[in-house]
Queue: 2 jobs
Job 1
Amino acid sequence: MTGLVIKNTGSWVTVRLDDGETVNCRMRGVLRLKGLRCTNPVAVGDVVDIEEHSGDSPVVADIQPRKNYIIRRASNLSKEFQIIAANLDQAVLVATIFNPETSTTFIDRFLATAEAYQVPAVLVFNKIDLLITEESRQYLDELKVMYENIGYRVITMSATTGENADALRAMLAGKVSLLSGNSGVGKSSIINLLVPEAHVRVGDVSHTHHKGMHTTTFSELLDLPGGGAIIDTPGVKAFGTIDFERTEVAHYFPEIFRISDNCRFNNCTHTHEPGCAVLQAVESGEIAYSRFMSYLSILDEDPDNKYRKPF
Ligand SMILES: Nc1nc2c(ncn2[C@@H]2O[C@H](COP(=O)(O)OP(=O)(O)O)[C@@H](O)[C@H]2O)c(=O)[nH]1
Ligand SMILES: [Mg+2]
Ligand SMILES: [Zn+2]
């Protein structure tokens, strides 16, 4: 039998079978071994083969090949990885420009990581009802235009007033979307708006179990009324930074990559080289300064990097 993993608590996975029935399954030991450096070999969104055993709980026996998946390090310095979700149609970043402010660096890292995973990314700026000054609304417009010019879809909305909620619904319809974003940006509020019966707690870390001293958060796939689903990953701000190859970082900034065709050297890092078309485009404003700064900040993580910041 095959089914879709709709919840993963770490020790159990909930699988929805083709007939709609859901079953809680254990994981077969050998699957754990396959994902040696992975704390959870099975993720929400996975299609799995299960075996039923009389008198015992069903077992996830195999995972079907994934279209894509998102991973993160189990902890900052850990060598172990955690698969956050699999088989995504898109990754949605919920951001706010006020209360709290999501930095453009955070947004750009998210977008670059999504590019690296080949998952289409969408930006949702929430809490637009809070933007009462002309400057703040102008800033939002600038960000929207900037990201749209690069090729990303941008929705501006308010979960509180419901403004533009229909645009969000249309964007999610029929797709499996991962919902990410810093805490406090309104992810839970958005989920409640879309799936009222989910009753996700707002202003709090949702879906947490307190078992003694351990706090476990789990991912869950929630069906949308109009078709499609969102994957909620409480406690996961964004996907983990993958280990970008220094020479590849520019590939994940589409507008930088496009222009880099015109750099004099084909191994140009766009940091100091003569004849660098990217540096020229940053200077002329064709490439947004904030985007270029985000690009540099990812390069900066490379301990071997030897470039000098040009600004
Ligand atoms: N003004 C305003 N507040 C919002 C909006 N969306 C969420 N909030 C508030 O922001 C806080 C955090 O929301 P929550 O949904 O828990 O954010 P999460 O941490 O991303 O899940 C709560 O107090 C919400 O009521 C919005 O669109 N406008
Ligand atoms: Mg929440
Ligand atoms: Zn260059």
Job 2
Amino acid sequence: MNKDTENIVTNDISSELSCPACRYKTAHPADSNLGAIRGNTERFSNTQFRLWKCPQCQTIISIDPVDFHDIYSDYPLNKRKLDIFAQGTFGNLLSRLRRAGLQKTDTILDYGCGNGIFVDYMKQHGYLNIVGYDPYVPEFSPLPTSQTPFDCIINNDTLEHCDDIHGMLQESLKLLKVGGLLYLGTADSEPVDMANLEPEIMRLHQPFHRVIITEQGLHNLVAEYKVDLLQSYRRSYHDTLRPFSNYRFLDELNKAVGHNLDRAMDPTEVNRVFIRKPRLWFFALFGYLFPSAFEPAVIVRKRPPL
Ligand SMILES: [Zn+2]
């Protein structure tokens, strides 16, 4: 074992733990609420990260602080392409937004847009007034304010990447028009057994996922603000009946390459595992019927001030 793999993980919690969702605090967390898991990217595959599950709301929190600019400097998901898989899942996301009333003329902000492939997708589908923001991607930083306030803000797979989820939500609402739509979709922390985290390595996605809440936690979070709940989803927006566009397939593909996202995104590696593991074809086609995790989402409308 080399030095990098020799990370010593202890349950010694030197300072008070605080839940960013429900604000529960403790200096003496129960051992049963503590765990550790390696990262699921090449860079962090030999590093263990400590996690704590809030006993009050079941939110899972990545305990040790990170340098966000550093961890996102070579983030593999920022190399995603707008391929057939992405087209399928983004189609599902756009359908949700349309159902809530999104119009092609609306001004839209994709908050936490990564490399901007959803912005590109939306432009290809006639939503031309969309801009992206991602503080860790130079092309999409700083925050575009020329169109504020926006008709619609999309926070998809963003909440779980923030330490301060209330702060992020407050900032989004500040940038949103009264009557505007806010989409919030995130990873799910239930059911996760803290004593057996390896099967959950994809959704835990350390050290990038900082705060992973439950579906109820998401509802509780938005209930604290002046918004009306329009739609609620339990299934991931990745989950469609289109071949290759489902969460279970992604999970199985990642498992087949040793839960290393860099490898899962390498076409040569993917072709190799498809030949070696025929069960991947089954999940590519029928994975929708066998979800391995959910990804709750809500669409809310901002209320006028009283
Ligand atoms: Zn909590």
